[in-house]
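hey so i finally got around to running both of the ones u sent me last week. sorry it took forever, my laptop kept dying halfway thru and i had to restart like 3 times lol. anyway pasting them below in the order u listed, first the sequence line then the structure token line for each. didnt double check formatting much so if smth looks off just lmk and ill redo it

first one:
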Amino acid sequence: MLIDTHCHVDQFSSPEEVVQECEMEGMRVVAVTNLPSHFIVTADRLRGHPLVCAALGSHPLSAANGIRELAAFKRMAPHADYIGEIGLDFSNQGMPSKALQERLFEEILHTIKGRPRFITLHSKGAEYAVLESLHRHKIRGAVFHWFSGSAKDLAKVIDDGHLVSVNVPMLSSLSGRRVVECAPMESILVESVAPFAKMRGKLSHPRDIKLVYETLALQWGKTFKEVTDTVKSNYERIISQFEK
């Protein structure tokens, strides 16, 4: 089974078609959302599709809307095992809303702490700040999506018991290759970020993660099956804490 831990299913022109394709191929997909209102629609569409799980999200670059929908997030969070995409963005694009993001992220972490969940995090330019917030709320086992921080921050992420998810664009960047080289196998998951990552000039699809698995096999000196088994084990180590 191939596992895609970060896919924006609701952003495809035909989400239902993508979901059906994933299930036909036996793929397990975490369908992240950018706002609670998006989660409501996505969760409804995914009823009856057990391999594709909707995640309750509040994207940092949508912080203004996220604050307006915070009450809805808090209302739905007790019933959500999958959380994402949440986090902070201190890139040039995100800096104007930095204070608002920090306020929203603090509220979200306070809401979701206290029990195991699958959490996928945005941390562009804010890796240390995200890590410190998780540490303060005693949240472990979260997943840093598209990690692009320093080797020092990566070491801290791993030491604190978190994981990183690797995608196709990361394989062609220095920072992405460093993640694959430095992170232990038991701390790596795989993501498509579809449809926002480009694949051969086209919008990405969850099935594109096969290339990530193949690259990990070369990097680790393992067979394709050994890599899929490792990633599956890493994923199940998280969800086994709440899936009974």
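and the second one:
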Amino acid sequence: MMTAFFTSGPVVDWPGAAKSDTLRYARYFHGMLDRGIHLAPSQFEAAFVSTAHTEKEIDATLDAAREALRAEAP
């Protein structure tokens, strides 16, 4: 399980998670979706990796994440 939070500090509880930038996550979510990667639409939901995911899918996800983050950077 994992979740991406866009915040400057660590997220270890709800107050830390609540400080995250939900608009930035929304841009990231749509950037990933545009690249064929389907994530949870809310950063307050968990993502899962399963044994059905091969290195090919994981590498494609990492490549898409790099592209999406570069595209939304100021």
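quick thing i noticed on the 2nd:
The chain has a mean pLDDT of 92.
anyway thats it, ttyl
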